Amino acid sequence: MRHKLFGLGGLVVALALLSACGASSQGNNQDNYSEGGGSPTSPGTPPRDGAGGGVDSDSGSGGGSSQSPGQLTAGDWDDNRNFPFFQKYLSDAPQGMPAHPSTDRVIITVRDAEGRPVPNARVTVGDAAGKRLEAPTASDGRLLFLPTHDGAQANATFSVTVAPPPGQSGEPLTTSLEGTAWNLTLPGVQGVLPSELDVAFVVDATGSMGDEIRYLKAELQNIVDSVQGSFPNVSARFALVMYRDDGDAYVVRPFDFTSDVGLFRQQLDAQSAEGGGDYPEAMERGLGAIHQLSWRTGNTARLTFLVADAPTHTPHYQAFLREANRARLSGIKVYPVAASGVADEAEYLMRLAAQLTLGRYIFLTDDSGIGAPHAEPHIPCYQVQLLKNLLIRAIGSELEGRRVPASGTEVIRTVGSPRQDGSCTLQDGSVTYL
Length: 434
Fold this sequence. Notes:
Layout: H1 9-14, E1 73-77, H2 83-91, E2 106-111, E3 122-127, E4 130-136, E5 142-145, E6 158-163, E7 173-177, E8 181-185, E9 196-204, H3 210-230, E10 235-243, E11 252-258, H4 261-269, H5 283-288, E12 300-308, H6 317-329, E13 333-338, H7 344-357, E14 361-364, E15 382-386, H8 387-400, E16 413-415, E17 423-425, E18 431-433
Parallel strand pairs: 2-8, 9-10, 9-12, 12-13, 13-14
Antiparallel strand pairs: 1-14, 1-15, 2-5, 3-4, 3-6, 6-7, 10-11, 15-16, 17-18
Helix pairs in contact: 3-4, 6-7
């Protein structure tokens, strides 16, 4: 890198962890719209790691942080909820970015006979030439199918088989479907919210990330304790993947899932920020390392927070998207957290990863007054709030099986004049949603 709900009160302290992510990085997201739907603005040149490998700004392990939690501000965006706008965004992609065939997107939703979402049902989609998709549903019962992306021929007829989730009996459902929204009822099963939580933090550890890593060291104990305290009936585990770039002391350093708080803290305390040297980093290797982790396959909510402020190197764009697609097929949602330094290319790749996996794109804003200015993302409408609250709701939404919106008291500022129902009318008359 350049570098209510259900007892969520305790999680606020917990996820203060990443609320300092990007605090002292530089420059962020991208150009776009001013408050109330103004005209796009252009970001400056993204900052770069210092030549010669950067500075280890996290020397000394296990030390605390002088930073206070809960200061960084951020917005978020769902490209699947705003799919027509997403297609326009793709058509205006920066030069040289990889294509993302998704106009024929299908959202598959599996529910039980009572209308409750069924997490971790196994969905298989095939056409006359064979299997095109096999993956589990998320905790809200949804799964994304992209026919062209997944190798289907034009005008193909699809057969869909849905098998009960692990631990539940019942007969698989097989049917033929068409259209862009496949709503399936799976008889003989119950939609049960996840009893397990696996969260992986994938963090750029190049020279500009010293503040973020120090913050993780100082606040991790609070995060883990709060998650466990707020969700005593959920078996929570955490994993860590640090990544840098080719030529550094390491490229990827993964630490597998553990519920042992002391061990996880020890692993994190040993990390430091160093290396980099140029703007792009080995982000594709960092994301790819999540597939080395021992994700659970039962009634589990699976999330990855990808904390980055730079794209992968140009020759590895497709490799990054392949790793994001592997996450989709494994039922892992990717929530990118765009720190300072993110420019057009990184925003594009990170938003594609979120869209593929039904995650949301999270980006820092200037409202905290921390760090260098953040360029606007290519997003017309959003709410500014504390980053910690966004992360809390990301986890809470996965455990509840539904999107948990921000409360009015959490909103610091709005962009694009969203109405009470979350809709925003753009200058061309089209409508987007928070």
